[in-house]
Amino acid sequence: MDMESEIKDLREDLKKIMIDVALIKNAFLDEGELTDWAKKELKRAREESEENYIDLDDLRKEIENDLQD
């Protein structure tokens, strides 16, 4: 795949991500405030052990590897 095609694919992926983010914002926010469901999920996530977290650098490497495949 040439560089131009890769850039085009990345732009398409970014557009999809932007749409997903907008959908997520609509699902989690109600007039600028978190919905009750989002508050509950946030509380649950905060109670999760940090041992289950993924290091940001490791996540970046994983994404880069996926993009190269």
Strand content: 5-15%
- Number of spatially distinct domains: 1
- Mean of residue pLDDT values: 87
| H/I helix tally | 3
Low-confidence runs of at least 5 consecutive residues: none
Helicity, as a percent range: over 70%
Give a written overview of the molecule.
It is a single chain. The chain is mainly alpha-helical and 69 residues long. The protein has one domain (3-68). It is built from three helices and two strands, in the order αββαα. It is flat. The N and C termini lie close together (11 Å). 0% of the residues are buried.
Could you name the key traits of this structure?
single chain; 69 residues; mainly alpha; 3 helices; 74% helix; 6% strand; flat
List the helices and strands and how they pair.
Layout: H1 3-28, E1 29-30, E2 33-34, H2 36-47, H3 56-68
Antiparallel strand pairs: 1-2
Summarize it.
The protein has 69 residues and is mainly alpha-helical.
